[in-house]
Every structure is written in structure tokens, then in C-alpha cells.
């Protein structure tokens, strides 16, 4: 190694502050700013990671070379093989001249074609598919085509374009962070604070430094990442001797002493320390930059110095063998130590890795109707993937719909006067802001940020607002199960189409026309059924239109439902005076029964499920189940809901609602299936009576509702999409197999 280069390496390792290297500091600051900007871009969805169809375990570092990634990758591959899995490896192939994505097993074993590390691993791991590609994501896709169960990505921590399930970061105990500066002013590739992205941190070469230093490094990592690091070291698996470029390596005895050494690795000092620990201290150690391709002149100089020093053999690393010139015949025997990685607490490492391999999905939604669909989807996903972790993230309310189906809720509660973000009345939006809407959004964004890297897939049930809310907070491309936007209403804005094309994995639309509109703008949009109608399940409207008529009352699920209840009960009284009817109110899970009834002081409870006016009149049953169940036995709906009104119309129940902006928009969708009148109990009652008394009109409205809403199927289609395209079936199978292996290893240790 030249004097100047050696001085530079001492500087970046923090061993000395030398001229002229201090003048590189501004470049280090610039690199740090670029790194932070890049990570911010990925964290907030401005840059997008490609999700892979198979699990990916990334092995990387935050410094430039020298952390023993290659033997660690080999150890991981053998661990997965022992577990009964078929791993594949994707790596950059540093120093190779070809840029194509190549499968090593199908290529000529050339250093220029594949790189030294790929050749090393292919020789050590026969039968394991290895791909070299600068585009690691493309490499994983090639491995998936080879039928691997999972991919190990070598040096993948900074390659954020590739989605990963587990990030393992290696820290060199002999030089963990160098001088603390970014390249070229130091040896850091990004700030140590980036360790917060890592799922697991391993301190390598832990046996080459004093225990106190290891504890200090571990404490620093714990403080940054919140995780206790694992410890590893290198062990000698045996010796090989180099017989020449054609013969290659063969197993051998130990080198003859005295010996000299040469290497071209990231941390040559650790190689010297390793040889000393083995009892083979070199007379001298000629070090070159990582992946250096040796010339015959350089090797002749090393050999000449070795002979003059009295050396009887030469020692280099296994990787160096692939960087020797063709045709070079060494004048001295060349020996190579074969190394393997040893984990200090292998059982705990395997258990932790297993836990991080568990597939995790979050379903997000933004309103009661969307919560109902989202919770149904989460339930179906959990049924399909029972070993996976499926959670809910409602951004409105407290998530009662999810909890009722046994789905955990990850979002902070958010309750506003309007019950959500209002699109139609600015005064309601102003009330929401005064009540803390912006604070709620900030808290939710913070909750999302805590899930970055922990959740493989996010599904949004709702509209583009929710999609952007999730994307900004989570960073990962979500899947959108659309429930609001439709060309039958007003379609998507140009910007919405652009965002859905670039930042959404797939859109499941509520009607085929919207799917065609988005597909024309190159968005991945499909129509597989109306997700709203999935809430109806297999139920149908079984009412025969015979007296007594069954009238369904629906106050909605948002805050205003407490005030609107009186309007519906007054209308029920008027209807009951003229027709023999039975009345039922669906009480949404978001509403509080006692508070709701408190808004109807003239009505008294007969029992838990029945109320009656204190001056006589009709009895009204309170129903706390699904809207679809109540709709299946109803002749007409007098409803003020959104999604619930649409469910009833789709089930063939004629709908009467109030004439306001939001409902006028909804009527564009429902057409003649819905009748709008002013918010007056007399007018509501009169319209309901007219429909009940006209069987032809009632049948026409029923038929129109079923035609406009279509059938269900979107929820099950999304579950199958997650299974096959997103790779959830594969992820669950891998998790099942590896968790069994982890459990068996734990049992064997006890």
C-alpha cells in the first residue's frame, strides 16, 4: 500500500488527523446531506421501494467494507438450508466489467464477468442460486423465477429501491464508525443514526478487541437503534493451498513458518490480527485497497520481499485468489485460511430472525363504512394467513369495527365533530381543525413512522386522501381498495391519476368504468367487484312487501347521528299513523347507546333492544349488528348514512334520504334507487309511504339499486392478490418453516 493511501486509511479510521485529508470534511458534510435527503425521500414515499414476491433478508453495513459480510452471508445461507429452505443470494458483483443481471451458475466462472465475492460464494455454496446485479431488486426477481424460498441480499442496506423483510447490519468491532465522518472524509456510507432502520445489528470480530470495547460499542448501538446487538467472530474452518490458476485451491495442512501475508480487503488490519490469533503472525502484511486486482509486477515484488525476509510461505484471503493474474505461478507456497462465522448466541439470533420474518400487514381506513370494509378485509386476511400479523389503522374514531373482529388497532384514536375529514361543508372542516384535527394527523403520521420497515404491505380502504396520508407516513407503496371515487360521480383529478399511477401498487375500483379510466392513464387498476357490497355477504333482501311493512331507520355513524335521530323517530311516528309498520334502527358501533337515546327524551326504553314513545305510538327495535342483516328483512330504508345507504340500495332496498350536498353526490351513483327530500319528518314520512304503497315503484327502485351497486368480490380478490402477487403465501410458508427450526434449536439448547 502506498504511503499516501496508508495515510488516508489511518485518517478515515480515526487513527490520526493528517494533512491534507482534513480538507475533505466539506465533502463529507455534502455526502451526509445527500444521504439524509435520500432517506427522507424513501421514508415519505417520494422515492419508492419495489416489494419483492419472496422474503428478502438484507445483510449490509454503514461503513466502507471490512465487516465480514461475505462469510456472514454464507453462514445465513447454510442456516436457511439447515432449516429446510432453499435460499438464493443476490449481490452487486463488485469490480466486474459486465452490468447485466446474471445467474452465476449459468456463466463462465470469470472474475470480470461475476466479481470475486460471487465466485467465492458459488464455490463454497454449491446448489445455492447466486445472482449478480447492480439492480438488487431485479436480481431478487430473477431468483424468484428460479424457485427460491427467500433471497439473501449481500450489501443491501443502502439499496433501498429493493424492498426487504429483514435488515441485518454488521458493525466491525475493530473500527465501528471510523472517524465518524461520511465518505470521502471518513469511512461511513451513512450516519450511525441510520441503524434505527435495522431490524438486527451484529458486531463482527468481537473477539479481536477487549470486552470493555465491545460493551461500549454495544451501548452506542443500543442507544441509537433501541436494539441490543448480537456478537460474532471468525473461526478457522481449515486451510487450503493455491496450486495455480488452473488447479485452484485444495485442502491442505498449515502454512510453513515464517510466513508473509498480502490482502485486498476492506479492513486489512483485522486480517493481520486474525492470523496472529491463529498463531501465524506474518513477517509483513502487504495491504491493498478492497477488491484490488493484482498485477504480476506487484506479486513479484511481494514474493521478492518475502524471500529476502526468509519467509517459507505466503498467506492471503480466499477472495484474493480470484484477483490474481492468469498464468501467475507463485515461487512460494500460497495458503488460504477458510473462515466461517460464529455467533455468540446463535439460539437468540435465530429466534429474533424468525420473529422478524413473520409477515405483517396493516389495513388502513378513514370512516365508519370504510372501517367496516377494512375490518372485514383484515379478518379475511387473517383467516387466509393465520400465522401472519394483520392489524388495523383507522384514522377516524377508535377502531371499534376492527376490535369487534379481533383485529388489533395501531392508530391513535381520533374523534372530531364531523367524524372525519369533511369534503362538502367547510364550516365542519373548520370545526374539526379547532378541535385538533391537525394534531390528530400529526399523531397518526408519527404512528406510521414507527411502523416503517416493520410492515410489508399496507392496504388503504377509502380514497386518495387516505392513500396519500398512508404513503407520506409509511413510505411504502400501498394497495388501494377504492370506495369513494367513481366516474359515475365525478372521477379522479389529473393529479390523482398521476399519483395512483406512480405511487400505488394496485387500485381495486368500485366499478368497471373507473378501472378503465385509470388504466388509460397507465395506473394498475382492476375491477373485481364492489367492495361495499362485500359487507352484504351472501344476504339478500327477502322482504315480500306485505303488511306489516318493515321500515329500517339509519341515523348514520358520525357525530351528527346523535342530532339526526330525532328526525327519523318523528318520521316513524307519522308513518305509523297511516300504515301498519315495524321499525328498526341500526345503531353503528361508533355510537354510544345511552348518549343516542338521550337525544330522544320523549322515547323510553322498554328493554335493552326496544324503545317506545312515552305517549304511545310505534315501538322501535334497536339493532346493533350488521346493516346487511337488518336490510335483508326490510321493505324500505329511511337513512342518513353513506356506505350503509349504498349497501341497502345494492341489496334491493329502496332508499329515502335528505336533500343535502353529500347525498346529492351519492344520488349520482344510486340514481333512482334513492329518493331525496328536504330534512323534514313530514316529507320523509310522505315519501316513504308513497314508495311502500306503490309496488311497481318499489320494484323499480330495488332493481336500479342492485344494478348500480353491482356485486361483491373485491375483498376476496385482494386477498388472493396478496397471496400470489405480493408473496404472502410464500412468506407465511417460510415463516412457518423457519419458526419450527428456531423452536427446535431452542429446545435442543435446553
Describe this structure in words.
There is one protein chain. The chain has 750 residues and is of the alpha/beta class. The chain folds into four domains: 3-198, no CATH class; 235-346, no CATH class; 358-535 and 713-732, Rossmann fold (3-Layer(aba) Sandwich); 540-709, Glycogen Phosphorylase B (Rossmann fold, 3-Layer(aba) Sandwich), CATH 3.40.50.2000. Helix content is 40%, strand content 18%. The protein contains 27 helices and 28 strands. Strands 1, 2, 3, 4, 5, 6, 7, 8, 9, 10, 11, 12 and 13 form a 13-stranded mixed beta sheet that branches. It is elongated. The two termini are 50 Å apart. The mean pLDDT is 89.
Blueprint (SSEs and pairs):
Elements: H1 3-12, H2 25-43, E1 56-61, H3 69-82, E2 87-91, E3 102-103, H4 111-114, H5 116-124, E4 130-132, H6 136-145, E5 150-154, E6 166-172, E7 200-204, H7 211-225, E8 230-242, E9 249-252, E10 259-263, H8 268-278, E11 285-287, H9 296-308, E12 313-315, H10 318-321, E13 334-343, H11 346-357, E14 360-365, H12 368-384, E15 389-394, H13 400-404, E16 408-409, H14 426-434, H15 437-449, E17 457-462, H16 464-474, E18 479-482, H17 494-503, E19 506-508, H18 512-520, E20 525-526, E21 549-554, H19 561-578, E22 581-586, H20 593-598, E23 603-607, E24 610-613, E25 619-623, H21 627-631, E26 636-639, H22 643-650, E27 655-658, H23 661-670, E28 674-677, H24 681-692, H25 695-709, H26 714-724, H27 728-749
Parallel strand pairs: 1-5, 1-6, 2-4, 2-5, 6-7, 7-8, 10-11, 10-12, 12-13, 14-15, 14-17, 15-16, 17-18, 18-19, 19-20, 21-22, 21-26, 22-25, 26-27, 27-28
Antiparallel strand pairs: 3-4, 8-9, 8-13, 23-24, 24-25
Helix pairs in contact: 11-27, 12-26, 15-16, 19-24, 22-25
